[in-house]
Amino acid sequence: MNVVLWIIQILLAVVFGGAGLAKLTQPKEKLRDRMGWVDPVPPTQVKALGAVEVLAAIGLVLPALTGIATVLTPLAAVGLVIVMIGGILVHLRDLKRQDTEDRRRMEMQGAVTCAVLLVLAAVVAWGRFGPYSF
Nearest 5 degrees, angle CA 128-CA 14-CA 32? Predict the structure, then answer.
């Protein structure tokens, strides 16, 4: 199970590290094509979310690799669970606002993706706080 947790941690770190870096480095207008939810959100909040995602990605692997402050790994996973709850709520809210079937389908896919990432982060939090802690 320890190997499975490591695989999930690395997968989550890659996903959130990439998404966070995109939010930090790209202007909001450029993100709009792939992330329609950014429209009503102020650019500073998009950048803040990107920073949180990058920090969580680092927190998922670096403490465990170095053996320093290993409690940060499950805490980063809990933080991502909270972020994904917000993501699901945003996508479901935007689902009602979309005027075309394609846009509604895209929002539903976003909500499902957030739910899958939430479950993976919850598994890491459970495993690293519980039976497979460092």
Answer: 125
d(C-alpha 66, C-alpha 79), whole Å: 20
With beta carbons less than 8 A apart as the criterion, state whether 50 and 20 touch. Answer: yes
Task: Give pLDDT, residue 58.
Answer: 98
Interatomic CA distance for residues 122 and 97, integer angstroms: 29
Q: What is the DSSP letter of 105?
A: H
DSSP at 44: H
Whole-model pTM above 0.85?
yes
Calculate the dihedral angle through the C-alpha atoms of 96, 101, 104, 106, rounding to the nearest 10 degrees.
-170
Is a pLDDT exceeding 80 seen at residue 134? Answer: no
Q: What is the pLDDT of residues 73-96, one digit of tens each?
A: 999 999 999 999 999 999 998 888
